[in-house]
Each structure stands twice: as structure tokens, then as C-alpha cells.
Amino acid sequence: MQSVGSDPARLIAYRGGEAHVEGVALSRIAAEIGTPTFVYSRSALVETYQRFARAVDGMNATICYAVKANGNLAVVNTFAGLGAGADVVSIGEMKRAIQAGIPAGRIVFSGVGKTDEEMRSALAQGILQFNIESPDELNALSRIAVAAGKRASVALRVNPDVDAKTHEKITTGKKGNKFGIDIAHAPAMAAKAARLPGIAFDGLAIHIGSQLTSLDPYRHAFKRLADLTRELRGQGIVIERLDLGGGIGIAYQTDGAQGPTIALDDYAQVAAETVGNLGCKLVFEPGRSLVGNAGLLLARVVRVKDGEDRRFVILDAAMNDLVRPAMYGAHHAIKPVRQPPAGTVESPVDVVGPICESSDLFAAQRALPPVLADELLVLLSCGAYGFVMASTYNMRPLAAEVMVEGDRFAVVRPRQSFEDMLGTDRLPDWQASDLPEARSRGAA
Ligand code: LLP
Fold first, then answer.
1. How confident is the model at residue 262 (pLDDT cuts 50, 70, 90)?
2. Apex CA 210: angle with CA 207 and CA 212, to 5°?
3. Average pLDDT along the chain
4. Which residues line ligand 1 (CB under 6 A)?
5. Cβ-based neighbours of 151, under 8 Å, separated by 6 or more
6. 64 belongs to the catalytic site
7. CB 199, CB 135: distance < 8 Å
8. CATH code for 42-290?
9. How confident is the model at residue 73 (pLDDT cuts 50, 70, 90)?
10. I need a labelling partner for 157 at 20 to 30 A (CA). Which of 5, 218, 427, 433 fits?
11. What pLDDT, in 10s, does the model give residues 118-151?
């Protein structure tokens, strides 16, 4: 059976002429919740997690879901229920993971800019591991741990200088990237970490990038990690845990045009061949591969506009809801919710949002069946780095999020209200009387 990861369109199925996610018609969600709305399939989340877990079964591994990919409570709680740990990069993500039921003892804290406050808070929670990325950070954590009467469990994140062959904005393991410690400097720093009073040093970590579609960069990076492990052990330094990061790419194209993505079993085999015989516990940090193709963005066509040389399909979703096309030139497949009759001829259109910049473009010259105002469309592969990267640019409230399971669905985050969006700003007190509301109060 094909997995949801290998074809984005598998998330939807047309029944009775209408696209469904599991047993729920998307038109029903649009009618009850409105649009734009992110829709996730709980069965797809469970399926992708279990596939990952099966692939690394027997490898003494902890799967630490990268919360940054999709931090919705219902999503994180789904993985918590399946035994996942979490990879977090902020105290907000740590709080979300714990709130969702992931034990602190299964949480890894990554990131180049952990503040003292964040480290103190994570230490107090008793997380599994800090992935440390600079000498200064190491010293700061040791100081904080000593002051708290604790020792922080630490892995050094090394930069293996491997080209992940992915988009430049999501490459993280090359010389010149801000991430990790140059692998050449790692032995000296590991020796130092092993001596610091507040540090229990016992691991190494890497993460070379996101949306990888080839195994070669992994093979190179894992080999370098294995070599470094042997070198450090040769110096009497204990290495018990290797964190292999995340990054496995998913299919974004429905027609296979993107080429093959990484098969999980092959990935696990590369890990087994390179670091499997070191007797280390392993940590994996998958994000996108667990959630990306388990979610979509449901939007309504506001109107269709014929420009000079092209037709624009203008949606009620925009780059503030899904920034990936504007930010990375990312491709998201687009499908109509109403099934086009067999033999419908597709023609190229630009699918855009209403935001006031030309980068608010979801797809240029994309072949679509004819669409009319008020029709519903879906953008596929929006489960990862979708809602989490949303903003209120152009004063557009954050979209709603919905979870489907079987033939039921639930709002797992309501659409932001105008009250919430507008009500948080304040005027300085010397300006308050200028508000129409205050003026009318003053007059009363
Ligand atoms: N671990 C670390 C330390 C990371 O920095 C990341 C992602 C992951 C794990 C999870 O990687 P994944 O399995 O999801 O590829 N916003 C971009 C992707 C940024 C990825 C950042 N780091 C996008 O929309 O493509």
C-alpha cells in the first residue's frame, strides 16, 4: 500500500462527487467552520508515525517529534499517545509538548539561541537532553546547572559539513550555516564538556537540513558522526546517545514529477549500517515526514479575475496562512473539492491570495479545471510548516484548525476572532484620549 507520505492526494478521496478527508466531506467543514481552515487527518498521523516507528524498531531509538512542524495540541497529543518524545526549539514548544502529554524525560532541546531563562526552565523540568551548539552556550548551561544544584544532560550538535542538497534556506549542516559546532572543533569541546561541573556529557547530535530527498547526505553525515564517536571514545569520553536529527522529505507533487522521496526502510538501513554497531541509544527528530501529508488547507475562491495575459483565481487563503510558496517557492498541489466530471479540460491559472504583494502567489500557471467564485479548493501537503508559520499580516485573523477522525471532526483551534486580534494592542496613556471610543466616553 502506498503511504500518505508518497502521494499528497491520498489524503483526500472523492465520494459522491466531493472530496472527503477520511469520512468527512470538506464542504461540511467549510459550511460549519468557514475558510481558510487547516484540516488534519488523525488516521494519517497515526499511520505515518507507526510507519516510522516500525522502520526504526529494534534500533534502541526514541522518536522525538519535531514540534515546530505542527504544534497543535491535538497533533502533538496524538503522537504522545503513540509513545513519542519531542524535539523542541523554544520554551513555548517545550510547554506545548508537556501539555500534550509528552514526558519531559523524552524531550530534546535544540536550537542555536537558547536563553538562560529557557535553559533554566528546561533543566527544572528534567528534559532528556540539551543539544548544545556553541562553547558559550555550554558554559552558560554549566553555570545555570551548578546554581540549580543539577547536572544537565548534554549532546554536542556538530556541523558535519555535508551538503543536504535541499533548498538553501533549510540547509543546516554546511560550513557557513549558523548551526552546530564545526566537526573539527568537536573533540576539544567534548573534552571540555566532559570536565564541566554542571554538565553530564554523553551524546552527539546532527541535523543537516529539511526536505531531503536523497540518502547520500545522510550516509555521509552519519559516517562522520560514527568516526567522531570512535575518536572520542578513544580519548576516554563516554558517548551513549546519538541524535540523528530529522529532515526526511515528503512528496509535494501528485504526479511523481518530483522524483523519488526517501523510503523509511532505506533510511533506517543507512542509520543501522553507519551508527548501528556503536551500542548507542538513537534519537530521531522527524517533523515534516510525520505531519506534512496528513494535513491540507481548505480555501474558498473569492473571485476569478481575467488579467491581461492570464486568469487569476483569488482565494480567501493567503501567504499569511501558508507562507511556504512565497518564502521558498514551494509547490503545493491544488485540487477542487467538487470532483470535475471525467474529461474536463484543465487550463493554466495563477492561484493567488488577496494580500497586497505579488509574492502572495500559491501557484503560477497551474493547470486546473475551470473554477468559479465560491467554489472550494484544497492546497495539499499543508500539515507541516503551515499553520505554525502563519501570521496576521494584512490584519487577517489566524485560520482555524480541524482534526478529522473517521466520520467526525472537531475544531482543534478556533479561527482567531477580530476581538482577539484587535484587542491586544494598547495606546500609550498620553494618546488614549485620541481613540474614538475614549472620545465618546469623555463626551458622555
Ligand atoms: N530537528 C532540528 C534540529 C530541526 O531544525 C528540524 C527542522 C527538524 C528536526 C525537523 O525537520 P523535518 O523532519 O521537519 O524536516 N519551514 C521550512 C522547514 C524548516 C525546518 C527547520 N528545522 C519549510 O517549510 O520547508
1. very high
2. 105
3. 94
4. 66, 68-69, 87, 110, 170, 207, 210-211, 245-248, 285-289, 324, 328, 384-385
5. 145, 197, 198, 199, 200
6. no
7. no
8. 3.20.20.10
9. very high
10. 5
11. 999 999 999 999 999 999 999 999 999 999 999 9
